[in-house]
Amino acid sequence: MQSHIQIKNVNKIFSTGGREVVALDDINLEIARGEFICLLGPSGCGKSTLLNGIAGFSLPTSGSILIDGHEVVAPGPDRGMVFQEYALFPWMTVEKNIAFGLEIKKLPRAQILEKVDGLLRMLNLQDFRDRYPKDLSGGMRQRVAIARVLALDSPIMLMDEPFGALDSLTRRNLQDELLRIWTSLKKTIIFVTHSIEESIYLADRIVVMTYRPGKIKRDIRIAMPHPRDPSSAEFNALKKELSLLVMEEQQRHYQEEIKVPAGD
Amino acid sequence: MKEFFRVKIVENLQGFLVPLAVLALWQWLSVQAIVNPQILPAPTAVLVKWWEYLMPTEAYDPAKSGYLAWIFSGELIHDAYSSLFRVVTGFVIGAGMALPMGLLMGANERIYKLFNPLIQVLRPIPPIAFIPLSILWFGLGNPPAIFLIVIGSFFPVLMNTIAGVRHVDGIYIRAARSLGANQTTMFLRIMLPAATPYILTGARIGVGTAFIVVIVSEMIAVNNGLGYRILEAREFFWSDKIIAGMFSIGLLGLAIDTGMNRLNNYLLKWHRGIESN
Ligand SMILES: Nc1ncnc2c1ncn2[C@@H]1O[C@H](COP(=O)(O)OP(=O)(O)OP(=O)(O)O)[C@@H](O)[C@H]1O
Ligand SMILES: [Mg+2]
Q1: Which of A85, A170, B146, B257 is deepest in the core (most CB within 10 A)?
Q2: Which domains does chain B have, with CATH numbers?
Q3: Which of A80, A132, A134 sits opposite B178 (nearest CB)?
Q4: Which of A10, A13, A14 most suits a substitution to test ligand 1, by most atoms within 8 Å of the C-beta?
Q5: ipTM score
Q6: Which of A12, A88, A9 is nearest to A51 (CA)?
């Protein structure tokens, strides 16, 4: 049986100003339906590049990405994307933002309203339906962005450091809400983060990536039941193990940055 | 609260201080005949003239016309209406052509490359420089004036629309694409609203240019309107009427600007930094 998402021998090379950066180097990954997977690694290791490949924004230089056996060639509503910068349309109210994808699908008005109502309730946004994004806090904005993606019932949710810009309390709230949504709606979630704690708190499976070239360094499964207690011994043991892995890559990143270009 | 209002009132009074002082000095210069009233008539004289200019010339006669028609039959009302009509017509035509063209040029590189050289050649020519040609082409009256206003408002709206579309943040486009937007939706619901702040800036510059152009073109190609009237007054040495006309032009400009401001606030109520009220 084929996996839900298959990433086969994916390479991505960026060439800018005569220099080539190998952002992804022979990535192979099989993701099952309903899995919550975190891509973890230091800045610049290719997490966003891989996610953008799955989203269809930027296709791999070689290799292929398949969703249910079909190769990804363009973005589509079967893969909802939540961005760190929220990317809400500032000229639309909360309601209009959430309804956007449904209006594109030309759903009947009543059905759209019903769906939007449900999502507003699910994400505690009822009081904000007629507000514009500029009047919302960061946490609220990210809720709207999540609702906008959920509206389409896409089986896959791609999230690129969605909670990176939030304060720690709001962040924990949204993590819990995401887990609740994931459990009730059974989505496949690919979640990019560079927070080790966040990845352990959320994921079934953590994929640690290496820094330049971006390879898969380790693929760890986490069996701890939810809700997970960040102060438990098991949590902390995992945290220690992952810290070492990420630290090594962070170190390579640092070495590369301080290297004098002319020497060598 | 009381204190607050007192401060407000004092502030407002302060705002009148300098204009009142200038008026007083002006009045004094004229009354004392220090300056020849032919050159600089007293503010009171200007006000009297302005009133004459505003009010109907004939006595009210119910047999001839309704009261409303009579009260608006003054020369000033006619002139202001003529000037405003030209500005609005010219601007609507100019902006109406510039907007779709700017959207296309901003969104499509090939169309941009095709038209940009021509635009770069024509754009630096001040609209005023088109006056001789416009009279040659369209004769006298409204057509040449409106033609000049079309030109004056076309380029600011065009350039800003192009810039607006080109500056649309890529993240909105990516978000919309992943939500399934097609080309038309992308254009109408993403590009156009995202470019609105730029487009409105262009529109304000365009209206400003149109207002300058209407006054100049009325001085040359038309025989009514506020611009024509103050030039006509000069031939009769009616300096009071010239000044009354100038203030009328200022008031009309202020009205247009206020209107544009309202439109701006309404269309950009979603925009950061603009208070919705
Ligand atoms: N459009 C691009 N052109 C050139 N190089 C790029 C481009 N996008 C990414 N890169 C390079 O590819 C590498 C991986 O970038 P990517 O954005 O995927 O990293 P990341 O893991 O998401 O980092 P961060 O945590 O900072 O978001 C980086 O070294 C980056 O400089
Ligand atoms: Mg990234």
Answers
A1: B146
A2: 1-35 (no CATH), 69-276 (1.10.3720.10)
A3: A80
A4: A14
A5: 0.89
A6: A12
